[in-house]
Each structure stands twice: as C-alpha cells, then as structure tokens.
TrEMBL record, chain A:
InterPro entries: Cyclin-like_dom (IPR013763), Cyclin-like_sf (IPR036915), Cyclin/Ssn8 (IPR043198), Cyclin_N (IPR006671)
Matching Pfam families: Cyclin_N
tRNA processing found in the keyword field: no
Protein's name in the database: Cyclin-C1-1
Originating organism: Platanthera zijinensis
Keywords, sorted A to Z: Cell cycle, Cell division, Cyclin
Residues annotated as signal peptide: none
Any one GO BP annotation for this protein: cell division
TrEMBL record, chain B:
Catalytic activity entry: L-threonyl-[protein] + ATP = O-phospho-L-threonyl-[protein] + ADP + H(+); [DNA-directed RNA polymerase] + ATP = phospho-[DNA-directed RNA polymerase] + ADP + H(+); L-seryl-[protein] + ATP = O-phospho-L-seryl-[protein] + ADP + H(+)
Name of the protein: Cyclin-dependent kinase B1-1
Binding positions for ATP per the UniProt entry: 33
Family: Belongs to the protein kinase superfamily. CMGC Ser/Thr protein kinase family. CDC2/CDKX subfamily.
UniProt cross-references to SMART domains, sorted A to Z: S_TKc (SM00220)
Keyword Glycoprotein in annotation: no
Gene source species: Platanthera zijinensis
GO MF, any single term: RNA polymerase II CTD heptapeptide repeat kinase activity
Keywords in alphabetical order: ATP-binding, Kinase, Nucleotide-binding, Phosphoprotein, Serine/threonine-protein kinase, Transferase
Amino acid sequence: MSANFWTSSHHKQLLEQDKIDVVHPIDKERGLTLEEFKLIKIHMTNHIWKLAQQVKVRQRVIATAVTYFRRVYTRKSLTEYDPRFVAPTCLYLASKAEESTVQARLLVFYIKKMCSDEKYRCEIKDILEMEMKLLEALDYYLVVFHPYRPLLQLLHDAGMPDLTHISWGLVNDTYKMDFILIHPPFIIALACIYIASVLKDKDTTIWFEELRVDMNVVKNIAIEILDFYDFYRVEAVKGMSESSKGISEEKVNAALYKVTPKP
Amino acid sequence: MEKYDKLEKVGEGTYGKVYKAQDKVTGQLVALKKTRLEMDEEGIPPTTLREISLLQMLSQSIYVVRLLGVEHVEKNGKRLLYLVFEYLDTDLKKYVDSYKKGPNSRPLPSRLIQSFLYQLCKGVAHCHSHGVLHRDLKPQNLLVDKDKGILKVADLGLGRAFTVPLKSYTHEIVTLWYRAPEVLLGSTHYSVGVDIWSVGCIFAEMVRRQPLFAGDSELQQLLHIFRFLGTPTEAKWPGVSSLRDWHDYPQWKPQSLSQALPNLDSEGVDLLSKMLEYCPSNRISAKEALDHPYFNGLDKSQF
C-alpha cells in the first residue's frame, strides 16, 4: 500500500506554470526581473542542497525543503521573506516533517562555516521565528510527494534498473526548477526516465505506449529539463554539486541585493 | 485567539490542555488544543507539526475530526499554538461508560455498535489510504456526537506517514489494551494491521462494555490475548517464533468468540475474528471490513 497522491493536499495545490512565474509586486517594485527571480531560486536550491549535505539528511528531506521554499515564493515576496533565512528554515521544517529532525543550532553552525557572506548568517532565534512565518505562509500543508518512489517502481516495472543512477540524478536536478509545484511526481519521474533512456540509447517506446500517459506532457518536461541544462550550461547529472557557469555569483548577488531591505 | 471564548477545560493531553470554546461571532463550539512552544529550544515540536500536516491532509473526511485552523499566539513572552478543532460532546470511552453505570445500565443497541464500527472503519480506511497509520486508536481517541450518532477519529499526534519506513517505528506507542500482538512481540515492521487490531478490540469493548484485553504490562497483555485466542503457532502465524520478544508461552487453546460475546450475531463474530487474526498480513483491511456482511443491515446511504 502506498500513500495516495491523488487525494492529497499536494495534489490539490498543484499550480499552473504562469501562476509560478510571477514576480511578487513588492519585488517587482524593487526592479527584480523574472530571470533574476528564477536565478535566486536556483541559487538557494543549491544552498539548501549544500547545507543538507553538511548536516547529512536524506534526499527526501532536501526535496521537501526545496518544495517548501519554492511554494513560499509563489505567495510571498523575497523582500519580506529573506531567502537567506527562508532556505535553512525550510530545511529545518522539512527535517521535522520527514521525521529526521536536525537541530537549529547545527544549521546555524554549518551556515557560519559554509558562507563567508555575513548576510547568510543567522541565529537560532531567526530560524525559529521564520519557522512560524513559513508555516503560516504554507498554510500548514507540509505533506509533499516526490518522484523518487515512483521512479524506482517505474524502473522496476520497465525492467531497466540500470537507469536508476542517471535518472535519480535527473530527478534531483528537477528541483532546480518548479516542476514539483506543477506536475504529479510520477510524471516528473517519467520525464527523467525518458531522458535517461535517450541518453543511454534504450528503446522504451513500447513501454511508454503501454503506460497510457500523455506523452506530450512527459516530453515537454524532458525538453524543459534539457533546456535548463543548456541555458545554465550545467553538465547533466553532475550539475547539482557545484555552482554552474550560467549562474555567476555576481548575478545572484546583484539580484539578491535588489530584494535586501535597505537600512 | 480573541475570536473565541474559552468555556471550560475538557482534557489534558500529552502536549497540553484542551479547552471547549465558542466562536464569539458564529457561536460555533470548538475544541482548542493548546501547545506551548519552547522557543529557546527546538521550535515547534515535530509531533505537533506532524499532527497538523496530517490533519490538514486527512480532515477532508467527515470520519476524522476536523481541523478548523491553527492560531499562533504570543503572550507574556511565551509562544502558544492553538489547534482549533470542531467540537464533539463526548468520546467513546465516556459513551460506553454511560451504558455501564447507574440505573440505566444496559447493552449498547446493536445498531449503534454497527454504525459506530462502520464509521470507525471509514475513518481508519481514510487514514490508511493516505499512507497514515494512527497507531493509538482507543475509545478515548474516538469522539462521539451523541445526538447525531456520529463517531470520528481524533488524536493523530502519533500518526505518521508510512511512506518513509527507513527507521523502524518506535515501540512505545499504542496504549497496551489495544496493542497488536506483533508490536507486543517486538516486530519492527508493523503496518496497517496494528490499527485493525485496535479496531477489533474497540468493537469487542462496545459489545462487552468492558475492555477485551486489559493487561497492565506487556507480558500480561500478551497472556490475556493468548488465553483468549489461543497461543499462536508457526502454522497459524508464520514467523511468530522468530520475533524479537518471542518466548515459549503456555499452550492455550482458543476460546469460542461467540460464547465469549453472546450479544454479538454470527456475522459480527466473523468480522471480529478477522480483525483479531494473529498473522498481520491475513488481518482484514479497513476497506475490506466495510464490505463485510456484518454491515449488511446498515443503511450505508447515510454515510
């Protein structure tokens, strides 16, 4: 028996792309562009990822944290909700929701160690205060479904366990975009399997046909993922670990500067 | 919190007090569950968080107590979280007690037992279909609206999504009386069956007006079960003797359920025996239970 995505709050909260690609009016007033908005989200996804590696949590927790992060900014402005505090707090919240609590002081410690930039530094009380604000922003909906489980089930069904590594990596990278807010997890998993099978030269046409899913949706996601790699010049699958060429620190800092409250 | 008038304290849970209160504007009665947040330590307790998120997900069902909202309050430097639930006037324990004591002492009407059990199975099936185990089903956690004959599952604080089974579940969970034998025997991979076992115990308790297995230690609890249902064997329950806490127990023969529960009709006895099946994987599921002939006489259109 598995959890039921279709009746979950996650399913009910799925959004259209054009509802997500909206710069909050407050951020817009400060001159933030859609490109910069996306850039900040990618950068902060990487930040959550790196922080998570320090405190050693499971993939699922990271994925949930990034989902919270992206969901928050479909509703709130970067100006009012400093992403440099929101990101670690999302990880904190996700670790609790996924039953592998990471202590706030540990996060504070590793952020200090990781980031030379003062603006990323926070204290325990910042995280705890932000926790409450985020819960309200998320409307207390914390259950998130991810593509990892369906991915393994589908690969098993397709008899292609050898694609696990590469498609798992692709799923990881989908969190640099907003797919998790838009599509059911198994569709995302299928798109990753699709790319993996093309990369590894496996013929999956028949298997996909038998699934009776809308292949247009699957292929469109696959194309978007590939476009993403192309645009940010990230090497597929290895992309998540280090900051990629298309995402320069200057660009990120310039974008973040716009939404940083001025004293 | 100015929205509500606190009327009285109605209970005290593990995480704080529960008040009966009234919405000042609409007059709606609510239950306020107060949780103190120890903000200098680790923010909102994970159990509270989990309960809120599960309830948000599950409270679309009318068989699960409805979470109406969450209120965050700061008072004298203390931070409090109030979970606002719909209010039901009693719970199944008090309700069954009301049939036990006093001049009105009499069995619960069998139609009512049927209806309550059906609603309980609905609620449990709903939790299970969302990947959530309740793990602490007991009469105190089942809220009842006396006049309308409604029963709802409450207190999901120990519930958890079972999609993340990397760690084995903690052991100190279900109140002893309703605890499934696989948990008592130290099984680390228990699942939906633990809730069904509890449902079976609650079913029998409604019929008997007293608990079926009232053990006061884990060993005693097991012995109560074995004495009644017979000591399990490898033939009946494959793998039982390799469970962590298995020992050689006295060999009891099973008693007759129908003799022990003379008030229960044969369909009821059959359903109960399927809920109290030793082998967890053979135990009836909540969804299957809903289709059991025991409920044939029930007007299901009302649910």
